[in-house]
Design goal:
This protein is an alpha/beta fold. The chain is about 35% helix and about 15% strand. Strands 10-9-8-7-6-5-12-11 form an eight-stranded parallel β-sheet. α8 packs parallel to α9.
Length: about 300
């Protein structure tokens, strides 16, 4: 795995230029797998399991071994109803983990809505900033990311987790999300973030009902039309309950097979990356999609 600084007109994954500076698989170019590492006590699926830095480090290394191209470290839960933690607590949780994983040569993204945390994490070795608010939660985020020069994941977002369900009102959800993301992209580039460093995320489940989430998944083409790589984060989310999956374990672990199916479909439809809890199943899924697209190599070019 290497980090390569591709120009905007260079490497394209699924027809969309790869963000400058993003780690890409050396063996070929396919949908990337971002492994979720929640260093929190209250995340909806794995809260508390990796709050200890040693446990988090072991899990991050394990995800890289299972095929994660990037490990996404977050110190603040964004589950529905979650309240924010102080910046100092978020920093205490994430920085040791980011520093150790990056020191081990594992590409790391920092999952944060705070510019101060983003800057500290990049200083500690993170190579991507993943902001579920798309810069709306912290007015300083866009300028700070522009200065840092890292790739930036901008998610569609309307409100903080504690009150986001009240904002799930749309005329036509796909058109509205695309329009709001387009407006946000204009604001981010105006703040100085280079357009070829921005990845968009439709924010599945964030201020969206289950049906609205399914509609967005059906229309990844509309999101790709924005001209930016698309990240899909469906892992273990509550909209999968429609499938009536057995769920004998807490936190939706039984939804990993459904998540892997979505990873394969998203990859085949041109997603640039999928963000998942269970790396092994989705790493296989994106490689299946790549093999279907380019059977000569088993990778999508």
């Amino acid at each position: 795995m290497t980090t390569v600084d591709y120009p905007a007109t260079g490497l394209a994954v699924a027809g969309v230029p790869a963000p400058t500076g993003l780690p890409v698989p050396a063996a070929g170019h396919r949908c990337l797998v971002m492994g979720i590492l929640n260093v929190t006590p209250d995340s909806f699926s794995d809260g508390g399991r990796y709050l200890c830095a040693d446990a988090a480090l072991r899990h991050g290394v394990r995800m890289a071994e299972q095929g994660a191209d990037i490990v996404d470290v977050g110190g603040e839960s964004t589950r529905p109803g979650a309240f924010r933690v102080p910046a100092e607590e978020e920093l205490t949780r994430v920085l040791p983990v980011v520093r150790e994983l990056a020191g081990a040569g594992i590409p790391v993204s920092i999952d944060t809505m705070r510019s101060s945390v983003a800057e500290a994490a990049v200083d500690a070795g993170a190579v991507v900033v993943n902001d579920v608010s798309g810069g709306r939660a912290d007015p300083a985020m866009a300028r700070r990311v522009a200065e840092l020069g890292t790739p930036y994941v901008a998610m569609h977002w309307r409100a903080h987790s504690a009150g986001m369900d009240a904002h799930a009102r749309y005329g036509e959800v796909v058109k509205d999300v695309v329009a709001e993301l387009r407006a946000r992209l204009d604001e981010l580039t105006a703040a100085g973030i280079r357009t070829n460093r921005i990845i968009v995320d439709p924010g599945l489940g964030f201020a969206k009902t289950a049906e609205q989430t399914w509609q967005l998944l059906r229309r990844l083409d509309a999101l790709k039309a924005l001209g930016h790589p698309v990240l899909v984060g469906a892992s273990r989310k509550s909209f999968l309950a429609r499938l009536a999956l057995p769920d004998p374990l807490p936190g939706g672990v039984a939804r990993d097979d459904a998540t892997a199916a979505i990873s394969a479909i998203a990859a085949a439809r041109g997603a640039f990356a999928v963000r998942v809890h269970d790396v092994a199943t989705s790493a296989t899924a994106v490689r299946v999609a790549a093999a279907l697209q380019n059977p000569a190599t088993g990778e999508s070019r």
